[in-house]
Amino acid sequence: MKKILFSVLLALVGALVVFFSIWELSVVLTTPEWATTSGSIIDSDVRYSRKKYSNRDYLLHVKYEYVVAGVTYTSQRKTIGTDNDNWRGTEAALEAVRSQSYEVGTTVDVYYQPQNPNYAVLSTEYSLLSMLGWLLGGLIIIGMGGVLLFQD
Question: In angstroms, what CA-CA distances link 149 with 12, 15, 18?
Answer without folding.
Answer: 13, 15, 19
